[in-house]
User: Which sequence fits this backbone?
């Protein structure tokens, strides 16, 4: 320390000194860090060189249901199912051996209540002043919502690809059916002409009858091809769904057989749809017969209805927003495997040995031509459920006000 030139001031000699952080400033900084840790959406953690938690932020409470003190002393693998822990260790151990950072390792953890939680874990190594490895610091992020969205997108893209494939197959089937019809008209026409010229006792008469029968079966097949390609002639009418099914439930029960417990469950305000009633009945007959064949030892078959409002998508498929009538046919039969489900509505992909394989494709075409949508859920040994969505002619509030449309079988103007 020395005086200045005029002897009035005092100057400090020596190197400058670091400012000392006051207790108040230290508390303020700690409060800032604590606030950040509590408000950030990720779980912040630190593990030592043995990958044991030495610090856990309070966010672990929201993600896994544990208090921070319950996690301290554990390893990340202690919070995972055993098989998942082995899988993640195979990824993590080589990175830890090389003291490398690891970005975005997806892993499944067990919540304290037992449910599974999908996390994305990222971390970087840290070292002491001597360069000795001391552990990792990082974050865990709940990506369950993102994974569900990705899965929904994957399903939607798959359904879109399938819909486009059906469009292509439908165009091909429609063109083929048109040309076949022209040829079959000649076959059946000349068969009828020959039958008028060949006596019944002539041996050739029986052969001609067989030709005519084969032509008629082929004509029925082309009709189903046209149905699949959505080119068949429809005669739509207003159909009160619950009344329509109630009037025919005895037929479906008899078709299902005595060994099958059949039930019809009408939903409240299922509403009315504009559809060809005869083709709707044929579709249900086919679905009931399929269900019966899938339950040779007996089982349960339920047809039910319900009202549903769709905001513009039905099970991942873009659809006109509005009210729909949901028709469900559910059985407890043998079920359908995943590979078969992907082609169940394609022509000649029959579930029944010996059939022509056009029943379900023709149902698909009829429903699409009627403005509806059909979906199937099934697993081997767990039965099959067909869900059919038809656009409604009314809304539930119309029925409550007594403004119901004409009943089944009544023609609709226009």
Assistant:
């Amino acid at each position: 320390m020395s005086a200045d030139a005029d002897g009035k001031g005092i100057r400090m000699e020596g190197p400058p000194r670091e400012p000392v952080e006051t207790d108040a400033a230290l508390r303020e900084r700690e409060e800032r860090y604590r606030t950040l840790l509590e408000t950030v959406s990720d779980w912040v953690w630190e593990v030592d060189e043995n990958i044991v938690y030495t610090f856990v932020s309070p966010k672990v409470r929201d993600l896994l249901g544990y208090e921070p003190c319950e996690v301290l002393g554990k390893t990340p693998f202690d919070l995972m199912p055993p098989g998942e822990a082995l899988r993640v260790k195979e990824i993590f151990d080589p990175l830890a051996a090389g003291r490398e950072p690891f970005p975005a390792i997806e892993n499944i953890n067990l919540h304290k209540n037992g449910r599974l939680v999908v996390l994305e874990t990222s971390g970087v190594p840290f070292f002491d002043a001597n360069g000795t490895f001391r552990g990792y610091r990082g974050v865990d992020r709940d990506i369950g919502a993102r994974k569900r969205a990705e899965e929904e997108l994957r399903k939607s893209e798959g359904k879109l690809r399938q819909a486009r494939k059906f469009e292509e197959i439908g165009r091909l089937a429609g063109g083929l059916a048109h040309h076949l019809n022209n040829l079959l008209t000649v076959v059946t026409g000349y068969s009828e002409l020959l039958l008028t010229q060949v006596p019944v006792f002539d041996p050739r008469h029986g052969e001609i009858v067989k030709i005519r029968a084969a032509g008629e079966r082929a004509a029925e097949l082309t009709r189903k091809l046209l149905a699949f390609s959505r080119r068949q002639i429809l005669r739509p009418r207003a159909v009160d769904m619950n009344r329509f099914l109630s009037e025919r439930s005895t037929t479906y029960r008899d078709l299902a057989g005595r060994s099958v417990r059949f039930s019809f469950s009408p939903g409240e305000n299922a509403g009315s749809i504009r559809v060809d009633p005869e083709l709707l009945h044929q579709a249900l007959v086919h679905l009931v017969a399929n269900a019966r064949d899938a339950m040779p030892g007996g089982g349960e078959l339920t047809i039910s209805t319900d009202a549903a409002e769709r905001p513009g998508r039905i099970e991942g498929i873009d659809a006109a927003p509005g009210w729909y009538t949901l028709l469900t046919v559910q059985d407890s039969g043998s079920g359908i495997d995943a590979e078969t489900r992907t082609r169940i509505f394609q022509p000649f992909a029959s579930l029944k040995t010996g059939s022509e394989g056009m029943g379900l494709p023709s149902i698909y075409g009829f429903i699409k031509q009627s403005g509806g949508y059909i979906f199937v859920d099934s697993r081997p040994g767990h039965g099959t459920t067909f869900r059919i969505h038809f656009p409604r002619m009314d809304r539930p509030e119309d029925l409550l006000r007594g403004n119901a449309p004409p009943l089944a079988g009544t023609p609709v103007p226009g």
User: Anything to note?
Assistant: Residues 19 and 25 are 12 Å apart (CA to CA).
